[in-house]
Amino acid sequence: MELCYVNPFFLRDMAYSLGDTRCALADSAEAARLRSSVADLSSAGFAWHHVCPPGQYAYDLAWAAVKSLSLPETVDAIVYSTCLPHNGNAGDVTAWSETRDVKHLMDFPASRMQSALDLGSAAVFGLTQQGCTGLLGSLRLAGALLASEPDWRTVLCVTADRFPDGALYEQSYNLVSDGAAACLVSAAAGRFRVVASHQITNGGLHAASDDETVGLFFSYVPNLVRQTLDRAGLAISDIDWVVPQNTNHNAWTIAARLLGVDRDRVCQTTLGEIGHAISADNIINLLALLDTGTVRPGQHVLLVMAGHGLNWQATILQATERIE
Known about the structure:
By secondary structure, this protein is α+β, with helices and mostly antiparallel strands. It has two domains: about 5-185, Thiolase/Chalcone synthase (Peroxisomal Thiolase, Chain A, domain 1, 3-Layer(aba) Sandwich); about 190-320, Thiolase/Chalcone synthase (Peroxisomal Thiolase, Chain A, domain 1, 3-Layer(aba) Sandwich), CATH 3.40.47. It has helices at about 25-30, 40-45, 60-65, 95-100, 110-115, 135-150, 210-230, 250-260, 270-275, 280-290, and strands spanning about 5, 10-20, 20-25, 50, 75-80, 125, 155-160, 170, 175, 180-185, 190-200, 240-245, 300-305, 310-320. Strand 8 and strand 9 (about 175) form a beta hairpin.
């Protein structure tokens, strides 16, 4: 179901964090973290990625991102998104195997965060089945909550994922980083007004291979964008910037042509340094775009993300006067 928002809400105050260990492609190849060759990933635009060392977990990444925000005194809800289900549990898995008590599998990181931030009145929501599109799903849910709860003013959206030790740091020919992002969604004016959101899910493709996933990208993303624009009453010519995930830059050269967008308006400037930080890419690239000082009030920004499931989500933002 697509949404075009009647009651305005806004995206403001964004931050992200990454795994502490910065790894070059050659280092990760030597450590057997890759499936593709260094040459192939390099030609796709990747150079570095960030990996959590032992003892650094997804919750640590989430906490670092959230602590970089200027939180108001009152937060009405927390929407906490993870791509990998095991990151939705902050408990000790070995304690489950030793005790057979499933409460060790239900130590929810969102509840930990609510307590650590002393947000006792905040409701908590978890998203775990939207793949890399989870942050955009969080924004959508936050808007729906603000619309349905007239007394609510602010929702904290968080996404965090860390691959398990020994995992391959590559998915569908993309170099992956452990990372987190956080932002505030507010009924009060902020940097961007959220104009419209849309999601497509094709559960029949949940087991698609890497090659199938790449092929489907070029059909589903144009369809997703067209439907989102229709919902917003906009044309592709009204979009000033496209902020996608950090996937193969050659793929986005093709996608830009399919969409009728100038490739220079597709903002993936962090791809080489950060790689694909799972659901955090939109925030990372949006902050990088803001740092250039080229976003003007009134301009439209299209956030696009594809993820396992298979899910595709898009959100259209409009810059306000408060873009500093």
